[in-house]
Design goal:
single chain, alpha/beta, eight-stranded parallel barrel, 12 helices
């Protein structure tokens, strides 16, 4: 029987175990030019016992930023700064992928340089507010991307992927989930286009297919993962019947031989085994456990064949040595307490209230 603690090769790279540290936005890029800091290098190195670390979302271009103090991978300075992170993780024997996240309509002009506006497949504002340095602000109506701008955005993803490799990352994960730009093209309530980039199922999956293809051509398909969250309502997404779109998307991507597919499962858990069956490669599952954090029970998803790897988020914040604790059955630090006390970015050793 395969277990979470057995090795696995992802994109030809051997990993020590099948536990993934899920991508989690930290907003801790206080360095010059939206670059990561030494504190972030420490944070990731502390968690290098994961089979694979996927970083927080990293914007591939200035207009892709949707939150304050999130890092980029579109300038030489950012590439140099990320090298300190990847070197730190590799010294500890870990593997790390950069998550490339263009937030699209999720954001605010006050977070963007040079008078830029958030962009999206259609000029449809999200309901709700986003946090800025001046406090919460209502989402604005995004600028609808022209065809030329869509092609430039695809190129931006490919350029950021090349920068990731230069910065020492083992690969990249494309964020097609949680209501950000790739997801906005997939969802009917955010994509009202009637051209080749919308309207039909084929049109709505086109942007995702072209981004994945361009990035695979830029750095090699074995270095590319994709994260999806069918039916996830986060960031005002509505997908009442996501099955057709996502099964069609996986069918188009199946031949690319990607490193993995990373599914952030939603309440519609019936779709998960269908996607698992449709995907020919490595299947990473971030199981739906709301309102609780993913716990030790999720290890059984590997044992019963539901997934090849399992992603943990909050529990990795509170327990940097999570693989060891899972293997021994605990004890586990409380994720809520760790986050409250700042353990998300400084590490558990700073906080005597947490069990080292």
């Amino acid at each position: 029987m395969t277990t979470a603690f057995d090795p696995i090769a992802v994109g030809g790279k051997p990993l020590a175990n099948r536990l993934v540290m899920a991508p989690m936005t930290r907003s801790r890029a206080y360095g010059p030019g939206a670059g990561p800091t030494e504190l972030m290098a420490t944070y990731y190195a502390q968690r290098a016992a994961a089979g694979l670390i996927v970083t927080e979302g990293i914007q591939p271009s200035p207009v892709g930023q949707g939150y304050p103090d999130t890092p980029g991978l579109h300038t030489p300075g950012q590439v140099r700064a990320w090298r300190t992170v990847t070197d730190a993780v590799h010294r500890e024997g870990g593997a790390i992928f950069a998550q490339l996240m263009h937030t699209g309509r999720i954001g605010h002009p006050s977070l963007l340089p040079d008078g830029l506006l958030p962009v999206g497949p259609s000029a449809v504002a999200a309901e709700g507010r986003v946090f800025t340095h001046e406090g919460p602000k209502e989402f604005v109506t995004p600028k609808e991307l022209s065809e030329a701008e869509i092609r430039q955005t695809v190129a931006d993803f490919a350029d950021a992927a090349r920068n990731a490799v230069e910065a020492g990352f083992d690969g990249v994960e494309l964020h097609g989930a949680n209501g950000y730009l790739i997801h906005q093209f997939l969802a009917p309530n955010t994509n009202h286009r009637t051209d080749a980039w919308g309207g039909t199922t084929e049109g709505r999956i086109r942007f995702a297919v072209e981004v994945v293809t361009a990035v695979a051509e830029a750095i090699g398909s074995d270095r590319v993962g994709l994260r999806l969250s069918p039916g996830n309502q986060f960031n005002d997404i509505v997908e009442d019947t996501p099955d057709e779109v996502y099964l069609a998307l996986l069918d188009r991507l199946a031949g690319l031989d990607l490193a993995y597919l990373h599914l952030m499962e939603g309440p519609n858990r019936d779709l998960t085994p269908r996607l698992r069956k449709s995907w020919p490669g490595t299947f990473v599952l971030n199981p739906f456990t709301y309102p609780d954090a993913t716990g030790p029970d999720a290890l059984g998803l590997i044992e019963d064949g539901s997934a090849d790897m399992v992603a943990y988020g909050a529990l990795f914040l509170a327990n940097p040595d999570l693989p060891r604790r899972l293997a021994s059955g605990g004890p586990f630090n409380d994720p809520d307490k760790a986050t409250f006390y700042g353990g998300d970015h400084r590490g558990y050793t700073d906080y005597p209230t947490l069990t080292a």
